[in-house]
Specification:
The chain is an all-alpha fold. It is built from 6 helices and no strands.
């Protein structure tokens, strides 16, 4: 049986199979695909002449975050044995790599599974609805954007807090790539962007209320 790279090193993961795809390729596929989705959406929404550039960027964000939530995060919820995969499936490879930053995904930590379940199967579909709402300028789009952004922010804050409460060194490798790159950097995206979105939506809602007196 191959020895896994996850912390703690004495963690038992019967049937573990190391990454088949190099981490450079995994990162290129993940971030490259995400960028392509945003670019594609920005170009596609150019057909909607009444949308501002900011609205078109938001459409791109909600499409890519919806795909990440529903497809990628949905995979880790549905597949408890991702670390045993021998096929080189890119979704399983992503989680084999990310688990180096947080082995709780491999051990099926209760908080992780439930939090990711909500993110994947509740926030994910709503993200796609938000894209529709933005494209057709539905009045409810701001409410939906606020709701999901608050949910993302709350989930990410709890993710960090539970990790540090337990002791980050217990399940996160100390190398900069895994701690600063994956654990801190990648997750921080879902703090920075949701906060930005909350401010954006609040301003529009406040302006609308002020206009009605």
């Amino acid at each position: 049986m191959a020895k896994h790279p996850y912390f703690p090193l004495d963690l038992e993961l019967p049937g573990f199979v190391p990454n088949i795809i190099p981490y450079e390729t995994i990162l290129t596929v993940f971030f490259g695909s995400s960028a392509l989705v945003v670019i594609f959406m920005f170009l596609l929404t150019g057909r909607f002449k009444y949308l501002s550039s900011v609205e078109r960027l938001w459409a791109g964000w909600w499409m890519v975050t919806g795909i990440i939530h529903f497809v990628i995060e949905g995979t880790v919820v549905a597949n408890a044995n991702f670390y045993k995969d021998t096929t080189g499936n890119i979704l399983n490879e992503i989680w084999k790599e990310y688990a180096k930053a947080d082995s709780r995904y491999a051990t099926r930590d209760a908080f992780i599974v439930q939090m990711e379940g909500v993110t994947a199967f509740i926030w994910g579909p709503i993200c796609f609805a938000i894209v529709y709402g933005i494209l057709h300028r539905k009045a409810w789009r701001f409410t939906a954007m606020l709701l999901v952004s608050l949910g993302q922010l709350y989930g990410d804050v709890l993710y960090y807090l539970t990790c540090f409460h337990i002791g980050v060194e217990k399940h996160t490798r100390p190398e900069p790539l895994y701690f600063w790159g994956y654990f801190v950097g990648a997750n921080a995206i879902w703090i920075v962007v949701p906060v930005t979105c909350i401010i954006y939506c609040a301003r529009h809602v406040n302006s609308a209320v002020a206009a009605t007196g």
